[in-house]
Amino acid sequence: MNSAASDLQLTRVCKTYPTAGGELTILRDVNLVVSRGEALAVTGPSGSGKSTLLYIIGTLETPTSGTVRLLEQDPFGLTPAALAGFRNSRIGFVFQEHCLLPQCSVLENVLIPTLAGGGAGPAEERRARALLERVGLAQRLAHRPAELSGGERQRVAICRAMINQPPFLLADEPTGNLDRQTAQAVGSLLLELAREQNSLLIVVTHSTELADRFGRRVELVDGHLKERE
User: What string of DSSP letters covers 113-164?
Assistant: First the structure.
């Protein structure tokens, strides 16, 4: 792949944390190139640094060394306010825990990322309704998260991640708390929506079944990223 045309490029990214026993290295010289339209699964044992890698890509964590370029830009060179705006408009997150606001309705939860851009107008609300209809929740718009099943809550979280039409869709163990059938449905939704919107999809998962559905798969082992066939 031509790295000059890539939308995501990591070059020799390292991440270390100070501990009482000395420096703990989580990521070692990680190199990765991914473009929009690709779906990448990141696997590896617990504690291998999968989530740390995802959070660095999503600009929630800062690398200790190395470079990160998203859409040919170094996000960590931005001011904190500019970085927050970049993250909100360019990156959609789906976590293992849905992280929905319990006091807000389904529709309100999906619209939350639009607030930073000036609020939810008619166009944003139409898009939110269309996304929720797309994932089979058109009849649940006024419900609160507590009134939904686990799979329904995760579908709302996916819609929230997609509301700003981000070029990057990042998911951290999105099926980890779901039963097998619901996990398959949520995995299908992620892949389908990312494909429809030409988003770059990266999913961190322990699920071999989910990872096998992705066009590309890498594994973190001892801090190093290895491409899998």
Answer: GGGGGT---HHHHHHHHHHHHHTT-GGGTT--GGGS-HHHHHHHHHHHHHTT
Q: CA 183, CA 76: separation in Å to the nearest integer? A: 34
Write down the pLDDT at residue 162.
Answer: 93
Where in the chain are the domains? 3-228
Q: Is the separation of the CB atoms in 39 and 211 below 8 Å?
A: no
pLDDT in tens, 11-55: 999 999 998 888 999 999 999 999 998 999 999 988 889 999 999
Which CATH architecture does the domain made up of 3-228 adopt? 3-Layer(aba) Sandwich (3.40)
Tokens of 138: 């058109």
For residue 60, give both structure tokens: 């929630």
Please choose, from the candidates 32, 29, 15, 27, the residue with its C-alpha nearest in 3D space to the C-alpha of residue 200: 32
CA gap 155, 32 in Å, rounded: 28
Give me the percent of the chain exceeding a pLDDT of 70. Answer: 97
